[in-house]
Amino acid sequence: MLPTIVILGRPNVGKSSLFNRLVGRKIAIVDNTPGVTRDRKEAEGRVAGRDVRLLDTAGLEEAAPETIQGRMRASSEAALREADLALFVVDARSGLTPADRAFATWLRRQSVPVILVANKTEGRFGGQAAFEAYELGLGDPVAVSAEHGDGMGELHDAIREHLPAEDEDDKEDPDRPLRLAIIGRPNAGKSTLLNALLGQERMITGPEPGLTRDSVAVEWRDETGALVRLVDTAGLRKKARIEQALEKMSAAASIAALKECEVAILVLDALLGMEEQELRLARLAEREGRAVVIALNKWDAVEDRPGTRRRLDDVLTASLAQLRGIPVVPLSAQTGRGVEKLMPAVREAYGHWNRRIPTGELNRWFEAMLTRHPPPLSEGRRIKLRYATMPKARPPTVVVFGTRAEQLPEDYRRYLVNGFREAFAMPGVPIRLQLRGTTNPYAESDT
Hints:
The chain is of the alpha/beta class. It folds into three domains: 4-162, P-loop containing nucleotide triphosphate hydrolases (Rossmann fold, 3-Layer(aba) Sandwich); 174-353, P-loop containing nucleotide triphosphate hydrolases (Rossmann fold); 359-437, K homology (KH) domain (GMP Synthetase, Chain A, domain 3), CATH 3.30.300. It has helices at 15-23, 68-81, 98-108, 126-129, 152-162, 190-198, 245-260, 276-287, 305-319, 342-353, 359-372, 410-423, and strands at 4-8, 41-47, 50-56, 85-91, 114-119, 142-143, 178-183, 216-221, 227-232, 263-269, 291-297, 328-330, 377-378, 381-382, 384-392, 397-403, 432-437. Strand 4 (85-91), helix 3 (98-108) and strand 5 (114-119) form a beta-alpha-beta unit. The longest helix is centred in the middle third of the chain and has 16 residues, at 245-260. The relative contact order is 0.08. Residues 29-39, 167-172, 202-216, 234-250 and 439-447 have low confidence and may be disordered. GTP 1 binds at residues 9-16, 56-60, 119-122.
């Protein structure tokens, strides 16, 4: 029996869009009209590296049992009873409603584990809109945009943690493979690099761009003997150039591989440098919460090596600050020179990405940061930051609590993120900073 995941929520929060996104194809009809989904839909898909059964349900509504809405709710409740995991979806853009709160209270009484999904968080401040969902008491919300695909990597990670083990004996399997994706533009040398890592001609290579049409998974052991599941992806081009159906499928497979991986190797052609296509890929990896290592390929053909590195560093500093300190490994996949340095860099990046900081150590750093630069005023009132926790790694996530913490300006948030990265030596991995305001009804005014 496949693990069963049920998607629940009130009407028009984006359940069917999320269902289609997780299944990987359009099955459920999506429309802005509430109540389009009346009968639950079922499909199999691959989520978090596992084959699962997904159930899309009608919107949860308070209604009499004999009405259509009442029968729709009964069908959703029946789906929950046969599920191993529930995804409770709320609309972060429109905010919480009394119905959301009522159904969250009901879900807390059920025996099925629940992941809270804050949907429609696209845009610059979309993630901040998700914080209101904390008050539902269902744990940390996972911010996603089902329509645009944002945040799906973190949702896959959350689902992976809640699914029942495939084999009870494998719960703490020390030989679980590190999931690695090789990404980059066509003809950057991705397949040649895979062959160099494996020590065999596993992939067809050549000077023609786009030889690899699909993502190909290979399991192998690196020089330490550790297992690696490596996915070589078809190159991603600018959207305007993705015309043929095959290439559209290749681009989708590349993005899916990125969502499934833990570390991404971004292959750059050292003769071309880092252009907008590579930056877009790196930002997608960061948005999905993946650690990134740059493989600077064709290094043997570069004449001005200091100048090439300087130009790359300038681009990374100016355009990829959210992955500050990203490791760069110059190599030649064709000759094999420098390839031996790549997997140690990947392992180190994975270690940073997977690291949890103890609360005591975290708050000593936090207090030092506040002492060095106290938070600024917001609309003439003080922002009081009280303490920080790190609820999860993969990627490292810091939650800061305080009065009006959510009003913290962007430059101070960057100060905290950069300080955290430097203090705990986490170069090249995304760092999530979440802010939660606290109120005390008995406290006097802070002004």
